[in-house]
Amino acid sequence: MPSVVFLRAVNVGGHQKFQPSRLAGDLAGFGAVNLGAAGTLIIRKPMSQAALRTEILRRLPFKPEMMICPGREILALARDEAFQHAPAGKDVRQFVSVMAKAPSRARGLPPLPLDQPAGEKWEVRIIAIRGQFALSLWRRLGKTIVYPNAVVEKHLGIPATTRSWNTILAVCKILKESDK
Fold it and tell me: Which residue has the higher pLDDT, 105 or 33?
């Protein structure tokens, strides 16, 4: 099964800058497909996470954090339809934070939905946690911007990287095309 790589904190404000399309080209032998500038790669050739991590790190001039997921987990997340009853549109956007690992149930998960800030003027609302994925809604209300990634990391204590739901759906489309 293909893998999906989510690089954390790359191409943000000149930090850990690289060209994802060039990296995908360097990984062409593994069936790599780049999706956008945030560091999202679909690797169509089955390989271990350790081998994939090594191949990526060998080709970058820095060592980014990586969340690597089996493609089947991304497809299952999309089938779950967690956003089915959640608002979306111009004022509310849907996001998925991919965590380095699933939160420990033994440590306890925060009650959901989790709003930041709390109350009617929330900007980030975590609505579900599915394994290593935290699903959230985001709306910009004021001059200060609260981002889903920061809320997930603060409340769950796990490094994460965040993508829009549309990016996750685009990943699913590529994964499904790879099956053909």
Answer: 33
Q: How far is the C-alpha of 171 from the C-alpha of 177, rounded, in Å? A: 10
Measured in degrees and rounded to the nearest 5, phi and psi for residue 129 equal -125, 120
State which amino acid sits at residue 141. L
Longest dimension (CA), the chain: 50
Helical H runs in the chain? 20-26, 49-59, 71-80, 148-156, 165-179
Q: What is the mean pLDDT of residues 101-113?
A: 86
Reference 102, options 156, 148, 49; nearest CA is 156
Q: What is the pLDDT of residues 139-154, one digit of tens each?
A: 988 777 788 999 999 9
Length of the chain: 180
Domains assigned to the chain: 3-75+169-179 (3.30.70), 83-164 (3.30.70)
Q: Is the pTM of this model over 0.85?
A: yes
> Within its chain, how far is the Cα of 60 from the centroid?
20
